[in-house]
């Protein structure tokens, strides 16, 4: 009987479960969508039980397809980072999860940076921004003190799903760094931070490595999904760490560009001591003693989703990309800034909002589509520029996430960035990375490089067109100025 591994990617728009064999061949991929609730401007919440239900449903679909042919050897996870899940002493959910792109905690993030000073970067590798977990706990202390007092455990999304599958509560180092409560150099929760901000130590889950074996699926989980009871479940990691594995970015001068709900530009780092001083995030990798830095655009793919759902609900993403292709480079001088949820890197500004600039009496629907795609890509160039300003050598850019499904967008990325773009044969980097963690946990491979050589499969290089890159540099130069022009207006609008 064949043996497979499952990689569970708990994204923001959907859970995607990938089933792979020993040769890295994808046997099946299943996806279950779930909603994000925006109960107030800037608020983004999800129901953790939607994640569990979606995950079990996707696994069930895979198990039906492979029934009698194969068993699952190992399972692991990649999960949206920073989102806060809180459980009471009975391990029941206290309130909906507050997500990584929720902007309500700007005041708390500012309080942390002003009152803890440079130490927050020294200890955690990160400055506080609204999306991180600690500011959310401080928001609860102030705004929902009863809920805060009831907390027995906090955790991140994939930790909750794993708890419901195994009955065990813990988190791994890559997700723990994203809380800004972990001492990144000493691999432990920082008592100094916890004491200063009055977060009880017992709220923090036990720390484990991403490849650590956590347990077997609970009896009821096997009943609901058809999973074999001896499938080993491994901890997994934050989605960007796991995506870096799934894209083969390890000890490499390639960088990662992900267009999922968020947009991420990520580089492998040898140590947590980088020159970025909190401008870029610094995170523990899902591989022990490895680190990575990254910049995050809060609403990359989400801006396109918002645009589609608001103006073209009947059309598909592919339709919108085709419309964009009908417009010209520069979208007839129409610019879009994707700040619909505020922005994290490089501005860390929860109050900024999206904009269209340069609408003329010749602007077409196609121009609007193209402006959205170009605006998202310029916001990723903002992240690449931080690496360039710090003289980071960038070889190829590995492009993943839903945005990498479009060849047109991949070429547009190459032209805007002026760099070679390489897509994975299957764009689901985090799901493949999670399956690789399971494969390593099951000891299918002797080391990570052997695993990468078998599981990571690239398409051909897409090279930039120098003429287009020269034009895009001029457009990007103007795009980059829009933030400072609209920031005072966005601030004033909050006072209306
Ligand atoms: N065919 C497509 N072409 C280009 N972009 C797409 C396509 N399908 C989806 N997308 C983009 O991908 C995003 C979802 O990417 P995904 O990696 O699945 O996100 P997440 O992991 O955050 O749930 C959507 O918001 C959309 O903008
Ligand atoms: O906040 C971050 C990383 O710091 C986001 O990248 C989240 O981890 C969500 O990822 P996607 O749902 O876009 O994959």
From TrEMBL:
The kind of enzyme this is, by top-level EC class, is transferase
Q: Which UniProt keywords apply?
A: ATP-binding, Carbohydrate metabolism, Kinase, Nucleotide-binding, Transferase, Xylose metabolism
Catalyses:
D-xylulose + ATP = D-xylulose 5-phosphate + ADP + H(+)
Please list which residues make up the signal peptide.
Answer: none
User: Which residues does substrate bind?
Assistant: 81-82
Q: Where is this site: Important for activity?
A: 9
Q: Which residues form the active site?
A: 239
- Its Enzyme Commission number(s) read 2.7.1.17
Entries under Gene3D superfamilies matching the protein: 3.30.420.40
Q: Which residues form the Carbohydrate kinase FGGY C-terminal domain?
A: 256-441
The record, for Pfam families, names: FGGY_C, FGGY_N
Q: Where is the Carbohydrate kinase FGGY N-terminal domain?
A: 4-246
> Matching InterPro entries, A to Z?
ATPase_NBD, Carb_kinase_FGGY, Carb_kinase_FGGY_CS, FGGY_C, FGGY_Carb_Kinase, FGGY_N, Xylulokinase
Job description of the protein: Catalyzes the phosphorylation of D-xylulose to D-xylulose 5-phosphate.
Give the PANTHER family listed for this entry.
SUGAR KINASE (PTHR43095), XYLULOSE KINASE (PTHR43095:SF5)
**Family the UniProt entry places it in:** Belongs to the FGGY kinase family.
> What is the name of this protein?
Xylulose kinase
Q: Can you name the source organism?
A: Lactobacillus melliventris
State the taxonomy lineage: Bacteria, Bacillati, Bacillota, Bacilli, Lactobacillales
């Amino acid at each position: 009987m064949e043996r497979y591994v499952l990689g569970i990617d708990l994204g923001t728009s959907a859970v995607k479960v990938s089933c792979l064999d020993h040769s890295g061949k994808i046997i099946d991929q299943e996806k279950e969508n779930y909603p994000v609730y925006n109960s107030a401007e800037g608020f983004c919440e999800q129901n953790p039980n939607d994640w569990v239900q979606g995950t079990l449903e996707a696994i069930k679909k895979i198990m039906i397809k492979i029934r009698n042919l194969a068993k699952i050897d190992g399972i692991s996870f990649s999960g949206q980072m920073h989102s806060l899940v809180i459980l009471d002493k009975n391990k029941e959910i206290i309130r909906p999860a507050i997500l990584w792109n929720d902007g309500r905690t700007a005041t708390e993030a500012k309080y942390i940076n002003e009152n803890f000073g440079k130490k927050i970067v020294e200890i955690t590798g990160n400055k506080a921004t609204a999306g991180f977990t600690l500011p959310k706990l401080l928001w609860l202390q102030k705004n929902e003190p009863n809920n805060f007092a009831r907390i027995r455990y906090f955790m991140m999304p994939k930790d909750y799903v794993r708890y419901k599958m195994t009955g065990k509560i813990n988190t791994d180092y890559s997700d723990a760094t994203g809380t800004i409560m972990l001492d990144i150099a000493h691999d432990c929760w920082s008592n100094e931070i916890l004491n200063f901000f009055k977060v009880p130590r017992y709220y923090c889950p036990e720390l484990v490595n991403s490849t650590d074996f956590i347990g077997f699926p609970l009896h009821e989980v096997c009943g609901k999904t058809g999973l074999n009871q001896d499938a080993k479940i491994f901890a997994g990691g934050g989605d960007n760490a796991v995506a870096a594995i799934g894209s083969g970015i390890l000890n490499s001068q390639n960088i990662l560009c992900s267009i999922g709900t968020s947009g991420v530009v990520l580089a492998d780092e040898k140590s947590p001591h980088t020159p970025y001083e909190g401008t870029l995030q610094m995170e523990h990798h899902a591989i022990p003693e490895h680190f990575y830095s990254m910049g995050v655009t809060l609403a990359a793919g989400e801006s396109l989703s918002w645009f589609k759902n608001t103006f073209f609900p009947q059309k598909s993403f592919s339709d919108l990309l085709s419309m964009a292709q009908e417009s010209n480079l520069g979208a007839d001088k129409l610019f879009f800034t994707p700040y619909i949820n505020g922005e994290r890197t490089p501005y860390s500004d929860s109050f900024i909002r999206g904009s269209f600039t340069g609408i003329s009496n010749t602007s077409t629907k196609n121009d609007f589509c193209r402006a959205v795609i170009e605006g998202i890509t310029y916001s990723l160039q903002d992240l690449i520029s931080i690496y360039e300003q710090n003289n980071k050598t960038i070889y190829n850019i590995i492009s993943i996430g839903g945005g990498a499904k479009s060849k047109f967008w991949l070429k547009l990325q190459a032209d805007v960035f002026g760099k070679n773009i390489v897509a994975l044969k299957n764009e689901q980097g985090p799901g493949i990375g999670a399956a690789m963690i399971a494969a390593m946990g099951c000891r299918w491979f002797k080391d990570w490089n052997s695993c990468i050589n078998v599981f990571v499969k690239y398409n051909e290089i897409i090279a930039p067109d120098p003429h287009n890159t020269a034009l895009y540099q001029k457009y990007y130069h103007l795009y980059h100025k829009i933030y400072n022009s609209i920031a005072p207006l966005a601030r004033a609008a909050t006072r209306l």
